[in-house]
Amino acid sequence: MKLQELLQVLPFYKIFHSSDPEILSLENDHRKVKKGSLFFCIEGTKTDGHRFAREAVDNGAAAVVAKRPLPLNVPIVVVNDTARAMAVMADAFYGQPSHSLRVIGITGTNGKTTVSHMIDQIFRSVRQKTGLIGTLYVKIAEDTYETKNTTPDCLTLQKHLHEMKKRNVAVVTMEVSSHALDQGRVRGIDFDVAVFTNLTQDHLDYHRTMDEYLRVKSLLFSQLGNHYNGKRKKFAILNKDDGAADLLARSTSAHVLTFGIKGDADVRAEAIRYSNRGMSYRVITPVGEETVEMKLIGEFNVYNSLAAIACGIACGLKLEEIVDGLRDFRSVPGRFELVDCGQPFPVIVDYAHTPDSLENVLKTIRSFAGGRIFVVVGCGGDRDPKKRPIMAQVACRYGTDPIFTSDNPRSEDPLKILADMEAGVRGLHYEIIPDRKEAIGRAISQASSGDVVLIAGKGHETYQIVGDRVFEFDDRLVAKQCIEDRLKKDRLA
Ligand SMILES: CC(=O)N[C@H]1[C@@H](OP(=O)(O)OP(=O)(O)OC[C@H]2O[C@@H](n3ccc(=O)[nH]c3=O)[C@H](O)[C@@H]2O)O[C@H](CO)[C@@H](O)[C@@H]1O[C@H](C)C(=O)N[C@@H](C)C(=O)N[C@H](CCC(=O)O)C(=O)O
Ligand SMILES: Nc1ncnc2c1ncn2[C@@H]1O[C@H](COP(=O)(O)OP(=O)(O)OP(=O)(O)O)[C@@H](O)[C@H]1O
Ligand SMILES: N[C@H](CCC[C@H](N)C(=O)O)C(=O)O
Ligand SMILES: [Mg+2]
Fold first, then answer.
1. Is 305 close to ligand 2, i.e. is its CB under 6 Å away?
2. Which residue's alpha carbon is nearest to atom 8 within ligand 3?
3. Which of 24, 47, 227, 395 could bridge 375 with an S-S bond, Cβ 3.0-4.6 Å?
4. Which residues form the Mur ligase central domain (predicted)?
5. CB 388 within 8 A of CB 429
6. Binding site annotation covers 109?
7. Same structural domain for residues 417 and 284?
8. Model confidence over 216-250: pLDDT tens digits?
9. Last residue of a domain, one of 295, 327, 359
């Protein structure tokens, strides 16, 4: 596409060294710039992209979008807000793919990955070609691609959507993180459905207050726009049992469909029963009632499945099809994942890295555990320090044997993070073992029949970030090794 044609979508700009080169790609990282790229200078949280404009041109950039004129020999497009211009131009460059795809966005503190996989499964079961964008990967039909962020930056996002459209995907389900909403990574995306799972404490390092965190979440619902886009009805799907639902309902002019278990939500679960193999409930909806049977456990998964059912209804699927689609849903990697090497006690790896998710998972474990509950848990560095003492309290309240260890310390001192956790549980019973492998080994070596070991916080992650270095580390593989060592020792004893 020619530069001048691309510039048509901007309301105002100034151009220096004007010409009309062919734009072959859009980039915001100078290291990815190739011949013919349009380079956007973005002011980030760590550095300012304007500092790399010269190197971008050296790497072949055909033009640059910046906040001020730059002494470079290519067209410099000057705008007030480069991030906003980038979102608008990316949408145009990639042919506005979100307008012809059915796009479902999911936001909330916990449950985004789980709900997105449930929705994806429902659409696959009615033979729709699907796309999935989230924490674990970007998936186009059967192909998966690695991803850095839960919600990619707008250039990567539009590129994926373009590819999905090219490959005849019908429905895209994507996680929309609060960081992404704040940084405008989803600007320009035409969502058909926006889902809200819940709002509890996390990310206060970034958003500062819960009110600001909620305000940012509400952007997804205001971005939804009107109740009808000319082709389809638009819906906000809200967890009615969460106090934030009211504000979110007021933030949108789309249709609202609520879900919940406590009151009179539009889509609600009644007669919930749990067994050690799964759960069942009666779902009451505006389009009928059905019995839901799933192989997952935990009240939080009732909520997750209700969100997915409500989304299916909003998209016009039959309730029977939706419930059928969920029947075979297996858990998502790293979410309540059992590591079973034949040991006489369950070892569970779970991605709970917030106070609320840890509490939910531990309550679920308590509902079936007969003996001790070992909780191996740490908190990430360069992330909300305020959640650390609370997570420690939750581990002590619901576990019998909490072991505090390192998560991803990143640039922080692991002992400082552990001290922050300890500040919440002075005088209570717990152990501190900074080395995560040792901590996992300690729990597994002490557990016996009837006990449960929970290894929380890193779920599917296959690495540990210490300082700037990324080491291979997979809780599931480490647990497996520790269990095998333990079983060998027991046999020899
Ligand atoms: C704090 C944060 O959110 N950072 C995100 C942000 O980067 P940034 O603004 O800090 O960028 P920066 O490093 O200051 O660089 C500014 C600009 O200069 C460019 N640059 C930079 C260096 C260079 O050598 N050359 C160059 O051109 C960069 O490409 C960028 O355009 O924008 C980047 C592109 O969108 C993101 O990849 C990056 O996510 C980082 C990796 C991150 O860890 N983010 C986490 C907090 C996050 O976003 N998490 C949520 C999920 C949270 C949850 O749900 O629990 C997520 O969606 O992943
Ligand atoms: N609806 C829920 N409410 C509370 N906790 C939940 C819920 N669903 C899942 N969890 C817990 O939260 C953890 C993370 O779940 P999931 O990965 O689905 O959330 P997420 O919102 O995608 O997280 P992230 O923001 O890190 O991507 C799970 O391992 C489980 O412990
Ligand atoms: N999306 C979350 C993941 C946290 C996972 C945990 N293991 C950590 O590193 O803190 C974040 O970036 O805050
Ligand atoms: Mg996720």
1. no
2. 380
3. 395
4. 106-311
5. no
6. yes
7. no
8. 999 999 999 888 888 889 999 999 999 999 999 99
9. 327
Question: What pLDDT does 229 receive?
Answer: 83
Q: How many residues does the chain have?
A: 493
Angle at which helix 319-327 crosses helix 299-314, to 10 degrees, equals 140
Q: 218 and 114, same structural domain? A: yes
Q: Please give the structure tokens belonging to residue 276.
A: 């050690």
Q: Is 234 in the pocket of ligand 2 (CB under 6 A)?
A: no
CA 111-115-117 angle, to 5 degrees, is 125
Whether the predicted model's global pTM rises above the 0.80 cut: yes
Give 192's contacts (C-beta < 8 A, 6+ positions apart).
Answer: 102, 103, 104, 229, 232, 234, 235, 315
Pocket test for ligand 2, best of 149, 357, 375, 391 (most atoms within 8 A of CB): 357
Pairwise CA distance, residues 37 & 172, whole Å: 27
Residues 305 and 417 placed together within one structural domain of the fold: no
State the complex-level ipTM: 0.96
Q: Which of 107, 110, 106, 108 is nearest to 359 (CA)?
A: 110
Tell me which residue range forms the domain holding 433. 337-492
Question: Under DSSP, is residue 49 helix (H, G, I), strand (E, B) or coil?
Answer: helix
Task: Lowest mean pLDDT of 119-133, 192-206, 436-450, name the range.
Answer: 192-206
Mean pLDDT of 287-307: 95
In angstroms, what is the span from residue 110 Cα to ligand 2's centroid? 4
Residues with C-beta atoms within 5 A of ion ligand 4 = 112-113, 135
Sheet holding 25-27, edge to edge: 14-16, 76-78, 63-66, 37-40, 25-27
What is the average pLDDT across 39-53? Answer: 97
pLDDT of residue 205: 83
Domain assignment present for 332: no
Identity at 302, one-letter amino acid code: V
What pLDDT, on a 0 to 100 scale, did the predictor assign at position 331?
83
In the block, tokens 């696959």 appear at: 124
Query: Which of 303, 455, 283 minimizes the C-alpha distance to 365?
Result: 455
Band (pLDDT 50/70/90 cuts) for residue 481 is very high
pLDDT at 139: 97
DSSP string for residues in 199-263: --S--HHHH-SHHHHHHHHHHHHHHT-BSB-SSSB-EEEEETTSTTHHHHHHT-BSEEEEEESSS
Long-range contacts of 286-294 (CB under 8 A, 24+ apart): 286/257, 286/313, 287/313, 287/318, 287/319, 288/319, 289/319, 290/319, 290/320, 290/323, 291/323, 292/323, 292/326, 293/327, 294/326, 294/327, 294/329
Given this model, what pLDDT does residue 203 score?
84
pLDDT at 309 over 90: yes
CA distance 464 to 410: 9
Residue 149 has pLDDT above 80, yes or no: yes
Residue among 407, 327, 394 nearest 361 (CA): 394
Q: Whose CA is nearest to atom 7 of ligand 2?
A: 111
Residue at 159: amino acid letter: K
Alpha carbons 258 and 67: distance in angstroms, whole number = 43
Domain count, the chain: 3
